[in-house]
Structures are given as C-alpha cells and as structure tokens.
Design brief:
By secondary structure, the protein is α/β, with parallel strands linked by helices. 39% of the residues lie in helices and 16% in strands. The protein is globular.
Length: 192
C-alpha cells in the first residue's frame, strides 16, 4: 500500500478533506493530513484565501514542506487547490516521490524547477469550466505538464465547480468526485 501526504484546499482541513483521507485509509493506504491553517477552517473560500494571503503563500507552502519532514521519502503527494502548492513542490523537489495527485489546481513546472522528475507519475483532475482551474491558467499548466511527462494524465470533468471533491461543501459534485476517487485509488494501487 502507498503512503500518502494530503494537503487541503483554501477552506482548511474540512470534514470533507478528512473524509477523503479516511476513504484512502479504508483502502489500506497510510495517509497523513497536515493542517496548513493551524486549526482554522473557513466557511467561505474568500475567507480562507484571505487567510492564506495574509499568512503568505510561501508560508503555507513551507508548512507543507515541513509536514513532510520525518516522513519516508517514498510518498505520494496529494494536493487540493491551494494544497497543490506544497504537493507539487515536494513531488518536484524532494527525492524519492512515488507520485503526485494534483486536484483542482496545477502550477507551471517552472515554479519549482526546470523539469518534472522523469520517474514521478502524476494525475491532474479538474472541471473543464471551473473559473479557477480552467480560467486562471491551471488547466493550461496541466496540459503542458502532460505533454512533457511520460507518466502523466489529465482528467477533465464537465462542470464549473471549484472544490467539487469536498463532500462537506456546497460545491460538491458526487458523480465527478466518485470518478476522481476511483482514479486516485487506481493510481495509488499502481504506484505502491
């Protein structure tokens, strides 16, 4: 089974994020869920984004990197939206990564290095009309990544919701989230 480090989105470590991690645990994986917001959970994405901005995105990313210290190098990094920042950074820069799952966000590879590591598989998931993922360049960064990495997949789901995978938020889309979960579990079974 895989060992997984899951980074939450801009609302914080919500009930839905904890539930996602629990689904991975029930499938037999070891899952770590660090809290990048130091215990705070926000009702609105605007409030969460304001917190992240005031703390500093570099600080949030550094908290994620610190969370990996003391854990085995052979991790799969999972990031949801904001959590993609530490997940992608660690997948690209920490030796030993087994894989990366970038959900509802993707930044250009150049943000964290010259190239994606050749031996680190990656899956990217997002909605095709999500104003953040599709409208702010994340989908373009994901397409560029998939074009240059041998073991990379991009899955686009119909819809315009951001954070559609979190069952505790109004933006939740059960059908799309179920498809993401099945693909994530398949990925983890493959890279363990």
């Amino acid at each position: 089974m895989a060992e997984v480090l899951v980074f939450h989105h801009g609302h914080g470590l919500t009930v839905g994020m904890r539930g996602f991690a629990e689904q991975l645990r029930r499938a037999g994986h070891t899952v770590h869920t660090p809290d990048l917001y130091e215990g705070q959970v926000f009702d609105s994405l605007d409030e969460g984004a304001a917190y992240a901005e005031s703390a500093g995105f570099d600080t949030i990313t550094a908290r994620g990197v610190t969370a990996a210290e003391g854990l085995p190098a052979e991790l799969v990094y999972v990031g949801f939206s904001l959590g993609v920042l530490p997940a992608q950074k660690l997948a690209q820069t920490r030796p030993g990564a087994k894989g990366a799952l970038l959900i509802e966000a993707c930044v250009p590879v150049s943000e964290f290095g010259a190239a994606w590591p050749y031996d680190v598989p990656v899956q990217i998931h997002g909605m095709d009309a999500d104003p953040f993922f599709a409208g702010e360049g994340d989908a373009d960064a994901a397409r560029a990544l998939v074009e240059t990495v041998t073991d990379a997949e991009l899955f686009l789901y119909p819809g315009d919701r951001h954070l559609f995978t979190d069952s505790s938020l109004p933006s939740y889309d059960e059908q799309a989230a179920t498809r993401v979960k099945h693909r994530v579990l398949g990925f983890l079974d493959r890279v363990e």
